[in-house]
């Protein structure tokens, strides 16, 4: 019965979305306050409906109701409860239900916390948000019903891909969807602005918190997925330029550009049309990612569906939403007027250059991801675009992005003195080169590409720290004044510093593990040692035991350096009888400078085992950097100035003379 109630609740959510997409929009265009208020109530009812549907499906997984096709195909009675629950979104139908749940959640949040937004703009935004929802509710109900029953239920289910039975991948999709689907708010605000003609600094400030929330979720989701690939797949790597990995990376890149562009709109009333376009393109890339995962054109552990008809449905939705938004943009863009004027050497120019470079690297990833698919569609040829293409095209442009980000703090708004910028940047660059030289001498590093990457990472880190100290009054101000200013800094400024510092740290980690890692793959017997960089790995023992729903072999690896014990590693090789699939669990010991990493492979039948041993320097810096970047968005969200409208010209004139603590 609960399954039928869930199905009914999903239909109720569709009805609420239909009302939300029409009446509030009519009210905004006609000036009817009562009709506009319907948008808030409909958004809340829509969320309750889809949340009820999601709860009903979750319950079916918890109680192992194998009369539901989705449960029978993706669960098993012997699975631990945690993975029964996370199995809800580890398949196409359940993940689409999570998709619309996130969409409805953001609509609910706008209706509850968007009181500062003018009624007409809020009503139109909610209407556009609901229009997106209508299409995806129809997609679920017509092609991907998660509540479909089986006439003759099996005694047990088929289980779930063992690779997905992991806490990291369990949290990965909800966080990704927070970003993927959360960027729909940027799209809705952009289309609403085009409809109402309201594009100004206040509009950018109202939109930016929702973009920040989505961007933070997507950042965390990408980092968590990378971490999962690193420790679960047993390949010793964190990023493989898989097309589905790229599908989440592209909206993150454009979303980063959108965040920076919105700052220029808010501060200088410039780049208005560009920001609107970025908001549309960010969600367009999110929809393209949804299409790639569910169209059947990709085969990947990330992919959910292999039915081309479902992909065609999503392609139609993508064409309607993005095509319609771009047509509206072409029609209304000429009515948008930028009033901000700035010089070539200014912070506005720096942010614009940052945007151009971010869009460029997005284009590089887009071509590398879709070109093989387009070529196969055109003439049937199968090619693979892998790491060499991305290393030669993406990395140089992203290095330029980091350099521009480092130069940003030295640029003032509207106009900056070139000589001052070059002088201050020169000092920081000199410190970065000196620091890299010290690292190279201390650790015996010689690779020029790796050292250049460290220089750029240090340049960004030191420039970020220098900006914080300068705004605190260093040098010159008394220590008490410096501390008071640091404590009183706006949280959005702290978000910027932490985000740029996290990017520098993560980049240094990527450089280190890419250039200086050591790897050995071999077949060894018990007691045999293998040298890996400065460390020595030895296989001590193998123990066979039983897990909750799998059989496992656990190896004991001794890791020494210069004859002294460093750590013991315990990698596993698991076998899942229900799914008839093996998995590996890497043994990892994290040190401040890197990871010691061991993987147990298959036995060779003669008393030996295939093993993989790695020393991966810099990996902890990557995870710490990703956490800091995510934290930066969340800290910025707590800034009160993002919860109120932009200051009026009259209030701005009455303000006292700004201090060094003034916002960025």
What is the 3D form? globular
Total count of helical runs of at least 4 residues = 21
**Unreliably modeled segments:** 644-664
Please outline the major beta sheet.
Answer: 6 strands, antiparallel
Instruction: Report the helical percentage.
Output: 55-70%
Structural class: alpha+beta
Average pLDDT over all residues: 90
C-alpha Rg (nearest Å): 27 Å
Distance between the termini: 56 Å
Q: Determine the strand fraction and express it as a percent band.
A: 5-15%
Counted beta strands: 10
Number of domains: 4
Structure description:
The chain has helices at 2-20, 23-30, 33-62, 69-74, 81-86, 92-113, 119-143, 167-180, 184-196, 201-232, 243-268, 272-294, 308-332, 347-379, 387-407, 418-443, 448-471, 479-487, 491-516, 619-637, 649-654; strands spanning 518-524, 529-532, 535-546, 551-561, 564-569, 572-576, 581-585, 587-590, 594-603, 609-617. The protein is an alpha+beta fold and 664 residues long. It folds into four domains: 1-160, no CATH class; 166-405, no CATH class; 406-516 and 629-636, no CATH class; 518-619. The strands form two sheets. Strands 2, 3, 4, 5, 6 and 7 form a six-stranded antiparallel β-sheet that branches. Helix 14 runs antiparallel to helix 15. It is globular. It starts with a helix and ends in a 10-residue tail after the last helix. The model is unreliable at 644-664 (pLDDT under 50).
């Amino acid at each position: 019965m609960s399954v039928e109630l869930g199905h009914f609740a999903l239909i109720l959510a569709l009805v609420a979305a239909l009302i939300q997409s029409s009446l509030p929009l009519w009210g905004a265009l006609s000036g009817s306050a009562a009709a506009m208020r319907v948008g808030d109530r409909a958004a809340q009812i829509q969320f309750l409906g889809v949340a009820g549907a999601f709860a009903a499906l979750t319950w079916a997984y918890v109680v192992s109701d194998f009369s539901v096709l989705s449960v029978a195909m993706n669960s098993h009675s012997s699975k631990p409860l945690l993975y029964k629950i996370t199995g809800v979104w580890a398949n196409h139908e359940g993940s689409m239900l999570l998709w619309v749940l996130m969409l409805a959640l953001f609509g609910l949040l706008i209706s509850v916390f968007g009181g500062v937004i003018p009624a007409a703009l809020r009503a139109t935004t909610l209407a556009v948000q609901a229009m997106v929802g209508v299409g995806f509710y129809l997609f679920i109900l017509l092609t991907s019903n998660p509540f479909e029953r089986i006439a003759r239920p099996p005694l047990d289910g088929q289980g779930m891909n063992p690779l997905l039975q992991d806490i990291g991948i369990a949290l990965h999709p909800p966080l990704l969807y927070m970003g993927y689907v959360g960027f729909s708010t940027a799209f809705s605000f952009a289309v609403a602005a085009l409809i109402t003609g309201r594009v100004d600094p206040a509009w950018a400030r109202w939109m930016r918190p929702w973009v920040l929330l989505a961007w933070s979720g997507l950042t965390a989701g990408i980092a968590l997925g990378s971490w999962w690939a690193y420790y679960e797949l047993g390949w010793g790597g964190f990023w493989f330029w898989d097309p589905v990995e790229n599908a989440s990376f592209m909206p993150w890149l454009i979303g980063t550009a959108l965040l920076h562009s919105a700052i220029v709109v808010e501060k200088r009333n410039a780049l208005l049309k560009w920001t609107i376009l970025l908001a549309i393109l960010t969600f367009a890339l999110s929809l393209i990612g949804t299409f790639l995962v569910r169209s059947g054109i990709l085969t990947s552990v990330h992919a959910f569906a292999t039915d081309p008809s479902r992909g065609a449905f999503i392609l139609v939705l993508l064409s309607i939403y993005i095509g319609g938004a771009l047509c509206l943009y072409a029609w209304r863009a000429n009515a948008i007027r930028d009033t901000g004027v700035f010089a070539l050497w200014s912070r506005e120019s720096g942010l614009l250059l940052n945007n151009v470079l971010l869009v460029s690297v997005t284009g590089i990833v887009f071509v590398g991801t879709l070109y093989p698919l387009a070529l196969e569609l055109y003439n049937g040829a199968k090619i693979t675009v892998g790491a060499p293409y991305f290393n030669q095209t993406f990395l140089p442009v992203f290095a330029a992005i980091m350099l521009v980000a480092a130069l940003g703090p030295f640029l003032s708004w509207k106009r900056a003195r070139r000589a001052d910028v070059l002088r201050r940047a020169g000092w920081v660059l000199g410190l970065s080169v000196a620091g890299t030289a010290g690292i190279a001498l201390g650790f015996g590093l010689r690779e020029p590409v790796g050292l250049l990457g460290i220089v750029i990472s240090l340049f960004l880190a030191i420039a970020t720290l220098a900006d914080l100290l300068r705004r605190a009054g260093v040098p010159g101000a008394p220590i008490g004044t410096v501390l008071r200013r640091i404590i009183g800094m706006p949280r959005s400024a702290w978000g910027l510093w932490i985000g740029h510092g996290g990017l520098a740290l993560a980049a240094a980690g990527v450089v280190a593990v890419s250039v200086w890692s050591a790897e050995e793959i071999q077949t060894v017997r018990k007691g045999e040692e293998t040298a890996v960089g400065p460390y020595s790995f030895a296989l001590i023992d193998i123990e066979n035991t039983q897990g909750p729903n799998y059989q496992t072999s656990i190896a004991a690896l001794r890791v020494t350096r210069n004859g002294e014990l460093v750590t013991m590693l315990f990698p596993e090789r698991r076998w899942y009888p229900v799914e008839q699939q093996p998995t590996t669990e890497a043994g990892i010991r994290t040190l401040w400078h890197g990871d010691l990493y061991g993987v147990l492979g298959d036995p060779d039948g003669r008393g030996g085992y295939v093993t993989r041993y790695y020393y991966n320097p810099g990996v902890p810096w990557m995870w710490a950097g990703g956490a800091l970047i995510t934290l930066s968005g969340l800290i910025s969200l707590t800034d009160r100035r993002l919860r109120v409208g932009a200051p009026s010209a009259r209030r701005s004139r009455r303000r006292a003379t700004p201090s060094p603590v003034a916002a960025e």
